[in-house]
Amino acid sequence: MDSDFLPRIGITTGDINGIGPEVILKALEKQKITKLCTPIIYGSGKHLSKYKSELGFHDWQFFTINNTKQANRKKFNLVNCYEGPNFELTLGEVKKEAGQLAFQALKRATEDLKSGYIEALVTAPISKDNTQGEEFNFPGHTEFLAHAFGVEDVLMFLVSEDLRLGVVTGHIPLEQVKKQINKKSISKKLDLMKTSLINDFGIQKPKIAVLGLNPHAGENGMLGKEEEEIIEPVVNEYRSKGNLFFGPFPTDGFFATQQWKQYDAVLAMYHDQGLTPFKMLAFDSGVNYTAGLTGVRTSPDHGTAFDLAGKNEANPGSMMQAIFAAIDIYKNRRLNEELTSNAISPVEIKKIIKANKEKN
Question: Matching InterPro entries, A to Z (predicted)?
Answer without folding.
Answer: PdxA_fam (IPR005255)
